[in-house]
Task: structure prediction
Amino acid sequence: ITAREDNAHRLSDPELLDRSTSLKRVLFSFDSDLLQEAVYRQQKGIEFFGVIYSHPMRITIGQCIVDIEIIASAGVEDDILNQIIYLPL
Result:
């Protein structure tokens, strides 16, 4: 689901991370500001459900899909909690 489909596209990055955590959904983003918020939460011990991040110039959409499928099929919920995964893998 996208932030727009969830009517969450106008939320701030902290609010978006809180929303995804309450829904137990990992966020995928190209947004470096969201990445900074996730790093901040890691440093402060503030729980979040997980972020998958990639710089848009370093990976194709197709490779993003392949990598996200690998992450989804190989892991369990606890593997992503409070984690940031950088793509490409």
Q: What stands out?
A: Residues 70 and 76 are 12 Å apart (CA to CA). The chain has a mean pLDDT of 93. The longest helix spans residues 61-74. The two ends are 22 Å apart (CA to CA).
